[in-house]
Amino acid sequence: MAESPRSLEAPALTTPRLLLRQWRDDDADAFAPITADPEVMRYIHDGSTLDRAGTGARIALWRRHWEQHGFGLYAVELRATGELIGFTGLATPLFLPEIMPAVEIGWRLGRSSWGQGYATEAARAVVDQARSEFGLKRLVSVHIVGNEASARVMVKLGMRLDRETVQPDTGRPLRVYAMDL
Ligand SMILES: CC(C)(COP(=O)(O)OP(=O)(O)OC[C@H]1O[C@@H](n2cnc3c(N)ncnc32)[C@H](O)[C@@H]1OP(=O)(O)O)[C@@H](O)C(=O)NCCC(=O)NCCS
Q1: Dihedral sign computed on CA atoms, order 145, 60, 71, 101
Q2: CA 53, CA 29: separation in Å to the nearest integer?
Q3: Ligand 1, residues 20, 114, 176: which to mutate, most atoms within 8 A of Cβ?
């Protein structure tokens, strides 16, 4: 069960192996190699990688999302080592107008952290918090067709296929999953 260790401050979550926390100024250094990896980015938008500056700009946007909405993407750390391994959290899927209004749950981890159940562990805590603290009633999650690892996380969370569509600006085929909370 997820705990909220700092409920009077900016939201954070702990799970058995992970700390989900707010972004810090120095996170771009650790996150840049993850977003520079073509395998990580293969099923993100058009598959482009990001450089250090692009990663920093993205982190700034994610911080602003927290300020604007009161929820957002968490930086995910391994509790055992303090290593930043990626993100998991909530976003507003403006890239897909046909499903708006909606709140999306998403995840992105560095390759060395794949296959150990971390995305599912982090996402379960995010789902609990979305329901119990943020009062959200429904979550969606969107993956590009072929991203079977991400699809599997959605299914393990209890999400169901809502629709198949295409990404408006790239034409890549998408699957939208959804769950009521
Ligand atoms: C998607 C991602 C976050 C999953 O992280 P993870 O920590 O490895 O996920 P988990 O271990 O919790 O679960 C992955 C599941 O997918 C399964 N899986 C992995 N690759 C698979 C494949 N090619 N085909 C079918 N299933 C696959 C795993 O076996 C596991 O299922 P299981 O627990 O039933 O065995 C990670 O692969 C990633 O960061 N990918 C790059 C970024 C990305 O694509 N993000 C999502 C965009 S929609």
Answers
A1: negative
A2: 10
A3: 114
pTM over 0.90: yes
pLDDT in tens, 23-40: 998 999 999 999 999 999
C-alpha of residue 83 to centroid of ligand 1, in Å = 19
Q: What angle do the packed helices 148-156 and 118-132 form, to 10 degrees? A: 50
Structure tokens at 111: 């390759």
Q: How far is ligand 1, taken at its centre, from the CA of residue 143, in Å?
A: 11
Query: Residue with the nearest Cα to atom 48 of ligand 1?
Result: 143
Percent of the chain with pLDDT over 70: 95
d(Cα 27, Cα 29) in Å, to the nearest integer? 5
**pLDDT tens, position by position, 127-168:** 999 999 999 999 999 999 999 999 999 999 999 999 999 999
Distance 119 CA to ligand 1 centre (A): 7
Query: Which domains are assigned to the chain?
Result: 13-180 (3.40.630.30)
pLDDT of 40: 98
**Measuring from each residue's beta carbon to the nearest atom of ligand 1, which residues come in under 6 Å?**
40, 43-44, 107-109, 114-120, 143, 147-150, 152-153
